[in-house]
Amino acid sequence: MKKTLIVYFSSFIVIGLLLYFFSMSWMNFLFQPALTKEINLFLTGLEKLHPQMTQSAYLNFSEKMQNAVKILPVFTTQYNYLSKINPCFKEFEDTFTYVDFWDDTLYSASVLPVDFLMVDQTVLVDSSIGNVIPENAEILAINEKNIAEIMSFFTDFVYASTEDERMFWAIERDYMNFFPEFFKAKNYKIRYKLNSTVEEVALNAVPWNEYSNWRKRRDSAIISIQETHEMTVIKLLDLKYDNNKIHSMRTVLENIVQKQPDNLIVDISGCKGIDTNYYMVQLLLSFLSDQEQALIPEQDTKYSQERNKIAVIPQETTYQGNLYFLTSKYSIYPLVRSLIAFSERTGIGKLIGEAPLSELDYFSNPFSEPLYNSYLIPRINRIQNKFNVILQKEDYFKYHEFSKKEYIIIQKYNEETLQFISDTFL
Prior knowledge:
By secondary structure, the chain is an alpha+beta fold. Helices cover 36% and strands 20% of the residues. It is built from 13 helices and 20 strands. It has helices at 2-25, 32-43, 55-70, 78-85, 147-155, 163-172, 179-183, 208-218, 246-259, 279-288, 334-346, 404-412, 415-425; strands at residues 29-31, 75-77, 110-111, 114-119, 122-128, 138-142, 145-146, 188-194, 197-203, 206-207, 223-227, 232-236, 263-267, 298-300, 305-306, 322-327, 350-353, 362-365, 383-386, 397-399. Strands 11-12-13-16-17-20 form a six-stranded mixed sheet, with helices on one face. Strands 7-6-8-9 form a four-stranded antiparallel sheet. A four-stranded antiparallel sheet has the order 15-14-19-18. A hairpin with a 2-residue loop joins strand 4 (114-119) and strand 5 (122-128).
C-alpha cells in the first residue's frame, strides 16, 4: 500500500512537471498544421488588405506566406517561424508593416546583453551590461560570422527604401540581440574594433527579462536639458506617450517659456517614438507655437477617412525666440517624422543637421488596428497616415552631414556636444 502511494505520488509529480513544461513551452514550439490553418484564416477576405496594397501584391504576399509555412517542420520555434514569414511582409512596401515577437513568448529567450547602434552602415556598441564591450566599439564579427553577413540576414526582415534604413530598423527592432535564438549558438565570441585596436571578448547571453529591465532603467528619462549663455538645448529621447513623464515634459517647457532664451534647440537626432497617441508631440508643439493647425491632415483607416482630428493644444504663453530642430538621418520614427512634418508645413522652427533618410510625405501608426489578432501573427500595423508633399526650402534647412565621430558626439550629450552644436550651427 505504501509503495503504491509512493508510485501514485511520483506519477502525479512527473505529470505535473510535464504539464508545467508544456504550458511554459506551447508558445515557443509551434505545430505546423496549426500554423497553416492560422495563415489561411489570416489571408481570408479582402478586408484584410493593407490600405495601399494592390490586388497583385496581395496575391504575391499570400503565396509567399503559404509557401513559407509549408517548408516548416512539424514542430518549430517562434524564431524559426518568424524568420520564414517576416520577409513576406516586405510586399506591403511599408516600413511599419512588420511582424514582431509577442512579448509572452520571450520568457525563455537568450539575448546578447548589448545595446547596438547603427551609424553609416556600421554596427557600434551604445552600451552593454557590465560594460563587457566598450561604448563606441565597432562590431566586426560574432562567432567568426562577419557582421555584414549577420546584418544581411536580419535586414531581409525589413522593408525600407535604402540599405542604410533597413540596417537601422534591424538594429532598432532588437533583431541583433536575438542572435543566440536565430543562430542557435551556445558560446559567443565577439570581435570588435576600438581606436584602431581589434579585440575579442567571450560574452554570455542573458535572459530577455534581465536585458529589458536593464534597458528600461537606463532609458527611463525622456528629456534632458542643458544651457549655455547663448542657447538652451532640449534632448528628446522618446516621444511615446507615458502618463508618468508628462509632468517632466511640461515642467521643462514651462521653465523655458518663462526664461525665453535667445536660441532654443530641440535635439531629436536620436529620438524614438512609436505610438498611436500623439499627446507628447502635441504637448511639445503647444509651447512652441500658437498656431491651431491640424497635426495630421489625413488618416486612412479600414473604416473611414478622417481629417483634422489632431490639433495643437494652445498655451497662454509660447516660446518666441529662435527655434531649431536638430535632426539626423535616423530621425525617422513615426512621431519624430510627424514633428518634423508639422514644422515644415507651418514654418515653425528651422531644421539643422542631416536630412532624415525617409521622406516626410507619410508615416504609419504602428500597433493600431492590426491586420489580424493572434499570438502567431502579432503586432502587424495596418494604418497609414499621409502628409502632403512639401517642397524643401533652402532657407528652412541648414544641412550638415555628420561624420561618425560627430554623430557619436551629439548622441552622448555632454559639454563637447554643446560646443559642437554652437560651433556648427549658431
